[in-house]
Amino acid sequence: MLSVTECEHDQQADHYLFDEQRMCQTVRLTLKDGQELSRNIEFPKDKPAYGRMEIEKKFHDLSAGVMDESKRTKLQNTIDRIDELDDITELTSCLY
Length: 96
What we know:
The chain has 96 residues and is an alpha+beta fold. It has helices spanning 11-20, 52-63, 69-80, 89-93; strands at 23-30, 36-43.
């Protein structure tokens, strides 16, 4: 299947992502008889938008197995003020 699969840059998908914060993809199939089938897919169309609380919960849930709570909290607090950091060292030091 990979030998007949092509991935192409989609400028319209970039527009949706960067300008409208929507993740969209286009899937296009060309059948052996030359017929083309195409469908636009938006993810996650059926799910509500993630808010800050959901993102923080997901971060803590996914990182709990590799970081203790104090390190996760320190990393989260550092990310919250990332625009105030003089350099990235403070952020990367939270990962060790």
